Amino acid sequence: MLEAKLAEAGTLKKLLDAIKELVTDANFECNEEGINLQAMDNSHVALVAVHLEAAGFKRYRCDRPMPLGVNLTSLTKVLKCAKDDDITTLKAADEADVLNLVYEAKNSDRIAEYDMKLMDIDSDTLGIPDTEYDARVTMPSAEFTRVVRDLSQLGESVRIEVSKEGVRFASEGEAANGSVLMKQTDDDEDTQAITIEMNQHVSLTFSLKYLVNFSKSASLCPRVQLMMSNDVPLLVAYDFGQGYIRYYLAPKIGD
Amino acid sequence: SLKQKSLKSFFSKG
Fold first, then answer.
1. What is the mean pLDDT of residues A241-251?
2. Lowest-pLDDT range of A31-40, A148-157, A181-190, A232-241
3. Please, what is the Cα angle at A43 between B6 and A46, to 5 degrees?
4. Is this prediction's ipTM beyond 0.90?
5. Given pLDDT bands bounded at 50, 70 and 90, which one contains residue A122?
6. Which of A239, A168, A237 is nearest to A205 (CA)?
7. Is there a contact between A250 and B13 if contact means CB atoms under 8 Å apart?
8. Is A206 buried (19+), middle (13-18) or exposed (0-12) by CB count in 10 A?
9. Is A109 exposed, middle or buried (0-12, 13-18, 19+ CB in 10 A)?
10. With an 8 Å Cβ cutoff, is A253 touching chain B?
11. Cβ separation of A125 and B2 shorter than 8 Å?
């Protein structure tokens, strides 16, 4: 069986917000180390990988590995019934077709209980190769959100170029072009810092609508990392205290 | 022109 007690429903809500527009159904793979989810969008352009560590829960017990097939729209509805600071317990028996969610109010005696149907999901888990990336950019997640949102007003794609100068995001639209250069900052310790580690110059083009989607994870984590090598998928990584959410995005490449 | 690649051409089925 699974029993996982989270300090706050808000963490799960934010996580769902960050993936629900990319994927509709996903298996939450539970084992003694924690909960993992890997899912691709319908067009096979983007992949999201989530990990929640067992140690990050107030209480965690999973006797044997079990997949929980979840419709994310349904889970979003059930989570809306929780207050952000409710203590939240997820429970499922072995071979169960129901996920039980219990919300305990922090400052009152309210206890709410919900049961949600689980489903069988055929998921083809992809093997993601360990990659040595040529460039790693670390920046405030809010800045990343802003730049992709701004450029998505202009065009469909963004070219991301990393050089010693900094990281440049450029988009060409029918009516307007735009580019944003973010220079490396001196003070690495500053939470507003932009740091660039680079073996070689990289230049890649991606669909902006996916990046706008990924950037919703800014609510989970103040920093984001972009990992890039020429002609391979971009990795957008948000590490928060209890785990991580990582997105992979296939590039657009010339014929 | 640029073509959108699929992730399946980069990642193997595990």
1. 96
2. A181-190
3. 65
4. yes
5. confident
6. A168
7. no
8. buried
9. exposed
10. yes
11. no
CB within 8 A of A198, min separation 6: which ones?
A134, A135, A136, A162, A163, A164
Smallest CA-to-CA distance from A200 within A136, A128, A248 is with A136
Q: What pLDDT does B14 receive?
A: 60
Nearest CB partner across the interface for B12, out of A127, A232, A254: A127
For A174-222, where are the E strands, in sequence order?
177-183, 195-198, 202-207
Which residues in chain B have Cβ-Cβ distances shorter than 8 Å to A157? 2
Question: Chain A residue closest to B4 (CA)?
Answer: A252
Contact assessment for residue A63 and residue A94, using Cβ atoms and an 8 Å cutoff: yes
Q: Which residue bears the tokens 């960050």?
A: A18
- A253 contacts: CB under 8 Å, gap ≥ 6: A205, A231, B2, B3, B5
Please answer yes or no on whether A127 and B2 come within 8 Å at the CB atom.
Answer: no
Of A43, A205, A233, the CB nearest to B10: A233
User: Is A204:A234 a contact under the CB 8 Å cutoff?
Assistant: yes
The owner of tokens 């190769």 is A129
Q: Which of A47, A124, A250 sits opposite B4 (nearest CB)?
A: A250
Question: A44 vs B6: CB contact, 8 Å cut-off?
Answer: yes
